[in-house]
Design goal:
By secondary structure, this protein is an alpha/beta fold. About 40% of the residues lie in helices and about 20% in strands. The chain contains 15 helices and 17 strands. The protein binds NADP nicotinamide-adenine-dinucleotide phosphate. Keywords: Oxidoreductase.
Length: about 500
């Protein structure tokens, strides 16, 4: 059973719902498959109208949606209102992208007379929607990475029906958002299969959905554990399908000596705020801070600890997420190679988590694989580094991350070039200013990165390039004129 729970108190409130049965999942996937051809052949302007209507409907129900989201997530009204704004902005953004013709862009190479390799037939490269997409919501963004979040927006923009699996941590919000979406689809005169919804609080629902033969791709945002388990299911199907998994990340932030000349204290305060933002429940939360092993570095670490210590994060998303956080911090607390700086005593009974910060040498960090894993919550490790070479070794040990931040790389030197090269090799986004929490929705955005940040590092789940995940290229050779005249719109 699914139960709506008040995140701040753990008390069950509101409704209780049964998980979707195998029969219901099959019916949802079948409806999506039945709608697939009609929706694929819809015009860009019809899909733009759908996306705008979804944005309008979300905003029209803002008050009720945000109140439920706050109750089920404890994320607070300002943050949730902002997240709803981002979600509707994103839906409208994809509508604009569609109207610019991006989804149906064509590459047309005219025929050339003569023998190959110079001579060739006419080739017209178009893109076709892959078909029904299974979409897995994350718990930590009840709007932006949930039922009508970026994965749903980009799949619908591409012309693919979606079957959303709601997250069990916000079941009431998921159901209400899904019913808004279904109403909009109906009002737009589209087949109901364009948007389908299933729910579950056990792994069977997700596994059954991914195994459904008519599902053509999976979009997943969530934990490393869940993402890798479902990626395996997608790969082991008789017909394997693409699994676009955006997983957790430790988001290393490198503080170079140049950054500490003058404004180290200010940077420490900004960083402490980023570590505690949303109680640290951001996939882009800075989890590993590389600091020079010198006197300026000592002062920065002290300023960071002083800024972090009094912070009072809000309650976490669920009791299970809080318990995992406390377990992870307890392990760090007892690790002999770590020197605790903040949160060195446990208080698992308090309603909200305490920030945690500890220091470790580069050598010990590199040697301990457990320290490279995301601790989802307001915890970070300071890694003391003595050279550019050591920074690069730490980044390589981490391996793959949504972001790397380089503070103090303004001057072009051999060292900053080497660091930028190392950062771009492990991250999908490299920042030179600011903090990694906050991911702008724009055409140039890349939210992904080498495994384990993403299972498909060439794709992004945020920004308008997210559309490309659901459009498969097809080369039409010597196509008849009626097909060319469709200008890339599938028939
Ligand atoms: P989660 O527990 O992995 O849940 C995500 C979805 O996967 C849920 O629908 C969950 O359903 C399902 N699931 C999990 N394990 C499964 C399994 N073994 N088999 C089948 N389904 C499974 O993640 P979360 O707690 O919602 O989100 C927190 C994590 O997401 C953090 O690690 C965070 O960094 C990451 N995240 C990443 C991004 C990004 O853009 N890369 C964004 C936000 C969050 P059930 O609970 O019903 O099993």
């Amino acid at each position: 059973m699914l139960q709506s729970v008040e995140a701040r108190t753990g008390v069950a409130v509101g409704g209780r719902w049964a998980e979707s049965t195998a029969f219901e999942i099959d019916a949802a996937v079948q409806a999506a498959a039945d709608a697939s051809d009609v929706f694929a052949a819809s015009t860009a302007s019809a899909r733009a109208a759908l996306l705008r209507a979804l944005a309008d409907a979300l905003e029209a129900d803002r008050e009720a949606l945000v109140a439920i989201a706050d109750r089920e997530s404890a994320l607070g009204l300002p943050r949730l209102n902002g997240e709803l704004d981002r979600t509707s902005f994103q839906l409208r953004g994809f509508a604009e992208v569609l109207e610019r013709g991006t989804a149906h862009a064509v590459i047309d190479d005219p025929a050339v007379d003569g023998a190959p390799p110079m001579g060739r037939p006419r080739l017209t490269r178009v893109r076709v929607p892959v078909g029904p997409v299974a979409m897995f919501s994350a718990s930590n963004f009840p709007f932006a990475f949930s039922v009508l979040g970026g994965d749903t927006a980009s799949a619908l923009a591409a012309g693919c029906p979606v079957v959303v699996k709601g997250h069990p941590a916000h079941p009431e919000l998921s159901r209400r958002t899904a019913s808004i979406a279904q109403e909009v689809v109906r009002a737009q005169d589209l087949p109901a299969g364009v948007f389908q919804f299933v729910q579950g609080g056990s792994i069977e629902v997700g596994v059954t959905l991914v195994q459904s033969p008519a599902i053509a791709a999976v979009a997943f945002t969530g934990s490393f554990k869940g993402g890798t388990a479902l990626a395996k299911v997608a790969a082991e199907r008789p017909r394997p399908i693409p699994f676009y998994g955006e997983l957790g990340s430790v988001n290393p932030l490198v503080v170079l000596p140049a950054a500490l000349e003058g404004n180290g204290a200010e940077l420490a305060v900004a960083l402490a705020g980023s570590i505690c933002l949303g109680a640290g429940q951001f996939c882009t939360s800075p989890g590993v801070i590389l600091v020079p092993n010198d006197a300026a570095g000592d002062s920065f670490v002290k300023a960071l600890a002083d800024a972090l210590r009094p912070m009072q994060p809000h309650a976490m998303l669920s009791a299970a997420i809080r318990a995992t956080f406390e377990r992870g911090v307890a392990q760090w607390r007892s690790a002999p190679q770590l020197k605790p700086l903040v949160g060195d005593t446990a208080d698992a009974t308090s309603p909200a988590p305490q920030p945690f910060l500890a220091e470790v040498s580069a050598a010990d960090f590199i040697a301990s694989h457990a320290l490279h894993e995301e601790a989802f919550g307001c915890a970070a490790l300071v890694v003391r580094v003595a050279s550019t070479k050591e920074i690069i070794e730490v980044l390589k040990a981490i391996g793959g991350s949504l972001t790397v931040t380089l503070w103090g790389a303004e001057a072009e030197t051999d060292e900053t070039r080497r660091l930028v090269r190392a950062a771009t090799q492990v991250a999908g986004r490299v920042l030179f200013k600011g903090v990694p929490t906050g991911v702008a929705v724009t055409a140039a955005q890349h939210h992904g990165g080498p495994f384990p940040a993403s299972t498909q590092p060439f794709t992004t789940s945020v920004g308008y390039a997210a559309l490309d995940r659901f459009l498969r290229p097809v080369a039409l050779q010597d196509a008849p004129s009626w097909l060319i005249e469709r200008k890339g719109v599938p028939c």
